[in-house]
Amino acid sequence: MPKGSDLLVAALENEGVERIFGVPGEENLDVVESLRTSKIKLILTRHEQAAAFMAATHGRLTGEPGVCISTLGPGALNLATGAAYAHLGAMPMIMLTGQKAIMTAKQARFQIVDVIGSMRPLTKMARQIISPASIPAIVRDAFRTAMEERPGPVHLELPEDVAGEETDEVPLVPRHPVELPVAPPAALDRAADMICKAERPLIMLGAASSRPKLVEPLSSFVRRTRIPFFNTQMGKGSVTGGSNLYVGTAALSSGDYVHRAVDHADLIIAIGHDTVEKPPFLMGPKGPKVIHVACTPANVEQVYFPHAEVIGDVGAGLALLADRIEGKLRPDPAFIGLRSEILERIRQRADEDRFPVTPQRIVHDVRRVMPEDGIVCLDNGMYKIWFARNYRTHVANTLLLDNALATMGAGLPSAMMAAMLYPRRRVLAVCGDGGFMMNSQEMETAVRLGLNLVVLILEDSAYGMIRWKQAVDKFPDWGLTFGNPDFVRYAQSYGATGHRVKRTADLVPTLEAAFKDTGVHLVTVPIDYAENTRVLVEELQGRVPEIA
Ligand SMILES: Cc1ncc(C[n+]2csc(CCOP(=O)(O)OP(=O)(O)O)c2C)c(N)n1
Ligand SMILES: [Mg+2]
Question: What pLDDT is recorded for position 547?
Fold first, then answer.
């Protein structure tokens, strides 16, 4: 007779799960035993948070939920930041946590916290499993909920007595394809009318436009309508950035060069905008009209209140919209001039050879060593703004950054997941010396898994972004610097290879050599953040951007 944990693992196999990331506790031992004889690999991490970041990134890159596992109380709470990361970032993920037996209480309240209660606000659904017979249906429901628009994390708690309880065979619930409804003709006609009447329409690609299945329909919409486009940070790469219609990335909310194009527009077609992102532009009473195109209705915010909405399957909706407007638009010639001005500004100082290295040069050099399909995974720090503004993407989901929870610590785990999913592509984690140290223990996991991965650390011995904001706000420079380990020896102690860049000209050859070799490489380079103030404050007319 199968026990609860056997049914759980069979249900996960039924969903196509290949790996589970995490740190089991004694309450998970039945599940561990059921995994032992299954096709699913158990991948131990050195902290549950990293397991959750990896599982979430699986969901982000494939559309299929990644799965992570932890014990009760302390382990489950360590998943919380990863839950929030997936929840805000709309990444499908399943979190499985153990719990003490529910029919007896032999250890009184030892280690018991209300994990379901803690997870509820951080997930789409949080449920305790109370009988083995319910497992197949609950698991199917969990995956469906996690994957459905808007995707996100689901938490299931499996108490140890339910996991160990024998039961009759219970049939699994088969998967079937689900299509979303398409926007009704009235909504499409209204939007088409607004676009045809506009003189200077501009497309904005937001976070949800990066969903893996949208690559083709989005590119086709832009090709057919020839409307210039810009993207939010998390919408980067969803349409080829090499096209002559790309006018830039909105890494700040206003005042950046790309906002000249936004200010010039009289209509913005916001495709897949999710207001979890730091606002890519600020709507006001006088600005351009906005059409929201997405699977789910817009959230109304102080800075985002669209005038029309096209709700439903985005790919199908865009094809119908293109049918209505193709060939009827007159491209506005001013965008072409604006585009070259914006891109020229962004390119400035990319060749600067001063040492420590400037952020612009780092972005430029990273682009040189990354093939078009190479994946750059950012942690969270000052350099994120530079990569978002300056790094050109040509393939969808090749610059993974978090402009939603904007948590530190996800750079290395997200890169590890990308390296596992795409072993033949170059994968680079870019981390600050602060963010890297928040999950640096996963270097051991990366080495153990035999991943090919390069980690670039930008060293300023500080929580640079906060230090910069402190200076912008005219506070004295105080309290935000720290010392670092010797990163080369630190890498070596994990069995990885460490490199220190001592001259700006060495950055490209060092990264190139690291990629040509196999295994895990860590490259550390000192960064000069004087450019933050020069460009992001002084050059952008004294306007101070909001930061995370
Ligand atoms: C988990 C977490 N803690 C704190 C912050 C606030 N924060 C944002 S950026 C930053 C500094 C990042 O430092 P580092 O990783 O060294 O990057 P740098 O800005 O120095 O390049 C901090 C503390 C955050 N976003 N996430
Ligand atoms: Mg730093």
Answer: 47
